[in-house]
């Protein structure tokens, strides 16, 4: 791989014939406009017409040009939003609120009947709490004296 070595670093690599070659025999590239490379799609009249329209009517009219730029930005935002956020939403549907509500509705339909309500009687607990609170209030009155 001697062709990777720079001539500035390795002067001994440059052949002596290249150093003494006459200037008129050295082929230099012609500076100027190169011929346009046209593909099959770029050769169609519709394609060329689109770019001609863009050059004449959009690029030379600043209102159309800025409208075009803003519309392209909105389009790019929508595409990226649909791809990235849409993928996230689809991937995490099982964590969404809609899915939780749906699962709760399904659970309400298939929930087993509550037969063991008599084990936990809420009325007895409330009565116990009221009795305890009344006893505490009397004790507080004695401490204030």
From TrEMBL:
<feature type="compositionally biased region" description="Acidic residues">
    <location>
        <begin position="114"/>
        <end position="145"/>
    </location>
</feature>
<protein>
    <submittedName>
        <fullName>Uncharacterized protein</fullName>
    </submittedName>
</protein>
<keyword id="KW-0472">Membrane</keyword>
<feature type="region of interest" description="Disordered">
    <location>
        <begin position="112"/>
        <end position="145"/>
    </location>
</feature>
<feature type="transmembrane region" description="Helical">
    <location>
        <begin position="65"/>
        <end position="89"/>
    </location>
</feature>
<keyword id="KW-0812">Transmembrane</keyword>
<keyword id="KW-1133">Transmembrane helix</keyword>
């Amino acid at each position: 791989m001697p062709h990777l070595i720079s001539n500035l670093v390795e002067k001994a690599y440059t052949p002596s014939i290249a150093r003494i070659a006459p200037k008129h025999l050295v082929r230099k590239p012609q500076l100027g406009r190169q011929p346009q490379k046209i593909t099959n799609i770029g050769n169609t009249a519709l394609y060329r017409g689109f770019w001609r329209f863009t050059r004449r009517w959009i690029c030379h009219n600043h209102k159309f040009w800025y409208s075009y730029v803003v519309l392209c930005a909105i389009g790019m935002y929508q595409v990226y939003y649909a791809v990235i956020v849409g993928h996230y939403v689809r991937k995490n549907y099982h964590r969404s609120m809609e899915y939780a509500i749906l699962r709760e509705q399904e659970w309400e339909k298939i929930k087993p009947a509550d037969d063991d309500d008599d084990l936990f009687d809420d009325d007895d607990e409330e009565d116990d709490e009221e009795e305890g609170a009344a006893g505490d209030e009397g004790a507080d009155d004695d401490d204030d004296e």
